[in-house]
Design a protein that fits this description.
Layout: H1 2-5, H2 8-38, H3 43-75, H4 78-86, H5 90-103, H6 116-128, H7 132-155, H8 160-186, H9 193-218, H10 226-244
Helix pairs in contact: 2-4, 3-4, 3-10, 5-6, 8-9, 9-10
C-alpha cells in the first residue's frame, strides 16, 4: 500500500497541483511588485518586504517538512506534501487524518492497516473539511471586511474583526491546553508525564519563547526579530517536545 501511495502517478498528480500554485504565487509576486512601483513606492522598501517575507517562510517551512515526514509513513509522501504545501495546516491535517482513520475502522493512523478505501476516505475528509473557509471568503469576505473597516473607522478604534480574531485564537489555545488539564481534573488521577505534562510544558516553553521575541523586538528596538517570532517559537516548542518525549 505504501508503494502505491508513493507511486509516480501520485507524485505526478500532487506535483502538478503544487506547481500550479507555485506559478500563481510567482505571478502575484511580479504583479504586486509592479503595482507597488506604479503607486510610487520605494523599490528598496518593496525589496525589503520581499526579503522579510521570504525569511519569515523559511523557519515555518521546517515545521511543515517535519509534518510531511510524520504523515508520510502512513499516507505516503505525495499526499501530505500536497496538503501541507497548499492550504493545509499541520495540526489540522494530523487530527482529521487520525479521526478519519478511526471512523473507517482501521484504528490508529498506520500503514499496516491502510487500504485504498480507507485512504480515499481520509484524503476526501482532509480536503473537504478545510475548503469552506476559502469558499466563504470568495463569496462574502469583501462585503464582510468592508463593513468591519467602516465600523472601526467610525468609532476610531479597531474593528470587530481584530477582536474576533484575538478571541478565536485565545479560544483555540484554551481548547488545546484545557483538554490536557481536563483529562487530569475529570479523570481518575491518571496523570502521565508523556500523556499530559509534555503538551503543557511545550505550551509554556513556546509562550516563553514568544515573550522573549516580543520583548526584544518591542522594548529593545530589534524589529527584525518579528520575522522570526512565530517560527522561532514553533521550533523551540517542537525541540522541547522532542527532548521531553
Amino acid at each position: 500500500m505504501l508503494q502505491k501511495l508513493n507511486s509516480p502517478f501520485m507524485y505526478m498528480v500532487c506535483g502538478t497541483v503544487i506547481l500550479f500554485v507555485a506559478i500563481v504565487c510567482v505571478v502575484f509576486l511580479v504583479r504586486s511588485y509592479r503595482a507597488g512601483k506604479a503607486m510610487g513606492m520605494d523599490p528598496k522598501a518593496l525589496k525589503h518586504a520581499i526579503a522579510s517575507s521570504a525569511t519569515f517562510t523559511i523557519l515555518p517551512a521546517v515545521g511543515i517538512l517535519l509534518g510531511v515526514i510524520a504523515l508520510s509513513g502512513s499516507l505516503g509522501t505525495p499526499w501530505p506534501w500536497l496538503r501541507l504545501s497548499v492550504i493545509g495546516a499541520l495540526h489540522y491535517e494530523t487530527q482529521v487524518a487520525e479521526a478519519a482513520s478511526e471512523a473507517v475502522g482501521i484504528g490508529s493512523l498506520s500503514i499496516a492497516h491502510m487500504n485504498p478505501q480507507a485512504f480515499t476516505t481520509i484524503a476526501f475528509l482532509m480536503s473537504v473539511c478545510i475548503m469552506w473557509g476559502m469558499i466563504l471568503s470568495i463569496l462574502f469576505n469583501k462585503r464582510y471586511t468592508s463593513r468591519l473597516s467602516n465600523r472601526g473607522a467610525q468609532k476610531n478604534e479597531a474593528g470587530f474583526g481584530d477582536s474576533a480574531m484575538t478571541a478565536m485564537f485565545v479560544g483555540l489555545v484554551s481548547t488545546y491546553i484545557g483538554s490536557y488539564i481536563g483529562n487530569f481534573v475529570s479523570g481518575s488521577g491518571n496523570f502521565t508525564f508523556q500523556g499530559n505534562a509534555v503538551p503543557l510544558v511545550v505550551a509554556a516553553v513556546s509562550a516563553a519563547a514568544m515573550g522573549f521575541f516580543t520583548f526584544f523586538s518591542e522594548k529593545k528596538g530589534l524589529r527584525w526579530l518579528e520575522n522570526f517570532s512565530v517560527a522561532g517559537s514553533m521550533l523551540i516548542g517542537m525541540a522541547a517536545a522532542v527532548f521531553l518525549g
